[in-house]
Amino acid sequence: MAEKSDDARDPTGAGVGQQQDRRSKRFRFKSKNNDQDRTDTESKRKRRKDEDTSNRHTKRRRSSRQRQSEERFRPDRLSPDRAFRESLFDALGDDEGATFWEGIYGQPIHNYPNTYEDPETGELERMTDEEYAQFVRRKMWEKSWEGLEAAKEEKRREREKERQRIRDEEKIRAANSQAQHDSYTFDAQIDASLRRGENRKDRKRWQSLWQDYLRRWQELRDLAETRQRSTEDAEQVFLRNKIAWPVESGKRKDVVRDNIERFIKKGTAAFRDDEQMGDPFSTAVKAERVRWHPDKIQQRYGFLEIDENTLKGVTAVFQSLDAIWNDIRNKAG
C-alpha cells in the first residue's frame, strides 16, 4: 500500500516530485540588485512625466498669452500706436509679458525711464502715458537697423553740410577778398586819376604864373626900349607898378628865399621836357640872378621912379638868388 501511495500521480499525470520542481521554478524571490534597478527606472519615468507635464503647461500658457495678445492687438481692433502702447504697458506689468514682447520686437521694451528733466526748472517731470509710449517707440526705433542706418545717414548729411558750409565760407571769403582787391584797385585808380588831374591843374597854374612873370618882365624891357627911343616927355611911371616879383603871390611882402626858390623851381618844372638836357632850375636861377642885380636894375630902369622900399626889395631878391646859386655850385662841386 505504501508503494502505491508513493507512486500515486496527480490528475495531469505528473508525479508529486515533478510538481514541486515546477513550483520552485515559477516562484523566485528577486535579489537586492533587481529591486534597486526597478526603483531607478520608476524614478526616471516619473521625472520624464513631470517634465512633460511642465512643458505642456508652459506651452499652454505661452500659447494662451500669444492667442490673447494676437486677439487684443489685431489690426482691425487697434491702431498701430494704440497696439504699441498696450504691448508696452503689458510688458511693464510682469516679467513674462516683458519676455514675450521682447521676443516680438526683438529688443527690450520696458527698460526706459518715464521721467525727464524740465529745461526751465531743472526738476524731474513724469511723462504722460502717450508721451512715454512715443518716447519708448522712438528709442526702440533708434536701436533698430533702420534707426541705425538713419543715424548714419544723418551724420553723413551733417558732415556733407559742414563741408558745404566750409566751401561756401571759402567762396564768400574769396569773393570778399576779390571785391576788396577790386575796390582797392578801383580806389587806387581813382586816387591816381585824381592826383594826375590835380598835378595837371597845378602844372597849368604854375605854367601860367611863370609865363605871366616872364611876360611882365618882357613888357618892362619893351617899355624901357620905347622910352629910350622917344624924345617926348612921358608921364612918370613908378617901377613898383611894373616890376614882377618872383613869388607865387607876386607881392613885395612875400619876397623871402624859400618863396623865391619854390617859385622858380615850380615854374621851370612846369615847362620841363623829359628829353630836355640839363637842369632848368639852375639855368633859371643863373639868369634871374643877373636880372635882379641892383646896379643893372637902376641902369636899365632908372627912367622910372624907384622908391626906397622897391629898391630894398630888389636887393633882397638878388641876395636870395645869389645864395641859391652858390648852393647849386657847391653841390655841383
UniProtKB/TrEMBL annotation:
Regions of compositional bias (Basic residues) in chain numbering: 56-65
Biased composition (Basic and acidic residues): 1-10, 32-55, 67-83, 152-173
Biological processes, Gene Ontology terms: negative regulation of canonical NF-kappaB signal transduction
InterPro entries, A to Z: NFKBIL1
Principal place of residence: nucleus
GO cellular component, as recorded: nucleus
UniProt entry keywords in alphabetical sequence: ANK repeat, Nucleus, Phosphoprotein, Repeat
Domain of life where this protein originates: Eukaryota
Region (Disordered): 1-83, 152-186
Localisation: Nucleus
Protein name: Uncharacterized protein
